[in-house]
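Q: Is it fine to ask for two folds in a single conversation?
A: Yes, each is treated on its own. Send the first.
Q: Here.
A: Result:
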Amino acid sequence: MENLGATMRILRPYPHVFAFYDGRIEGVRAYSPDPNWLDDGAYALGICSYAIVDGTEALVYDTHISLTHARLIRQVLEAQGVASIRVLLSHWHDDHVAGNAVFQDCEIMASAGTLTALTAHRHKMETAAPPIKPLVMPNRILDGDTAIQVGKIPVEIRHVDIHCFDAAVMVLPQSDLLFAGDTLEDPITYVDEPARLKTHLADLARMASWNAGRILPNHGRADIIAAGGYDASFIDATRLYVEKLLSLQGETALAARALQSFAPEIFATGAVTYFAPYENVHRRNVEAVTGQAGAPPSLVSLTSTASPPPECWYGSSATSQRHPRRALPGTSDGDGRPVT
């Protein structure tokens, strides 16, 4: 059934921003009817990679869930006249690095923690279903927060410890815009490192202090992304959910609740919307935090970015031959309308 990229939509939330969105389509799977990381951990939830473009330069934020997706991204950018592409990886998880091989001739930036994690998990990612093979590693390792230019557009790359110990987010100060990676998700964060939730809360507070006007996440609603993104209450909703998870010890009745009754306060913010596929994410979060049987083996405390991260729920992607330039079936124009 594999038909990767056929449902990808190209959104234009801002003149200088491309959003490559796929998934969140009821009853549709992109890779296989069998359990796999691509469909169950990314496509079902909706997944978006971004590109900032100015003139002949582009910065791609994550390489998407397959080589096919990454090829489509590169084709779109080159059709816009882009001749110089750099890549920033938001973190090490499969659904953000699966297309790296398409950009192996480009500068691929990442934190030292991302390189450590990819190295530690390389075999597993290259043999997963679907495999990311070869897994192309970043070739520029960032030392802390870094400022770069994309054409005339200044971009600030900032390290945060939210969702993953190695997360890198982007701020466009001229546009008051935050690219959040997986640090924020609509409606809830995926807890990969439950022993670090208090650290995540501290960095959510730090992120809130940046006073970003609009926020573009990698997992969110396509219509909100297309309209320019989420406001700062998105951070509040995430904070409230993490705080609720931290209150679970000894609260057996609370732990048994479905998402809407577990954290009604996050929906009361108006920032996020209930989405049924996240019930499974919520259940795994609760199991991870309470240490129940069946929780992902991610209970190891990470004390520094030099330590390999725990195993993650997400998985890996496709083959690595270049594809001839072709039309983009199932994509859309800047307003989200399908291209035929």
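Q: Second one now.
A: Result:
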Amino acid sequence: MLVYASIGCSHNYSFMFIIFILHYFLGVSAQSFIHSFTLTHSAFNVYIVTPEGKQIEFTKVDDNSRRWLNEFRAKPFSVPGKLEDVESIRYSALLIPSGLGCSYDLANHKDLGKILNEFIEDRKPICAIGHGTSALFSAMSDGGYSWSFNEYSITAPSLFEVCNLPNFADLPLIQEDFIKENGANYSHSQNNCNYVVIDRHVITGQNDNSTLSAVQNLILLCNARQGRQKIAS
């Protein structure tokens, strides 16, 4: 999983941008990452982290995205920091792009769970897209007996979308089932359509095609929160 850092930016917000990495064929969606990064990098200081600082693996790479990623990898900020070293107090928002690997290396990540719980307590903006919503499952409360997002409305890939994956039988969890079984309000739209749910400070997108809408709403939410803080001060 990964977070990206933009050095020398004059903006007031430091933006946590989280991705994951585990299996080479289950990395982060290139489309979701590129859209997420392009939008946030222009508006925020961005810091990329992954578990143990591992390099990012990308999936669904075509000729256009390959050229973009080659340029991205040549930049110093493409080197991820360690998720385990993140201090949530230093960051104002958190973004998890879509990627199948989240179900494997983030769904039970204790350090990420701690960060998410601290974001919930402070009502800081959180955005998870597509299979990236699996990362939210790491946040537990009541001694691990209750999911911290159990009173939120959330979307994620539908069961039908997941069933069409070639590795469906090997998936460690089904997002729709987990969300419903742990008390949250799950909803979805048609397969592979743009669908975003906003509940208080949490934004979720159903799939890769929801990336642009989800991140745009995240930026609006961050700007609104910053505006309220300026008025209050």
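Q: Anything structural to flag on that second result?
A: Two points. The longest strand covers residues 45-50. Residues 211-232 form the longest helix (22 residues).
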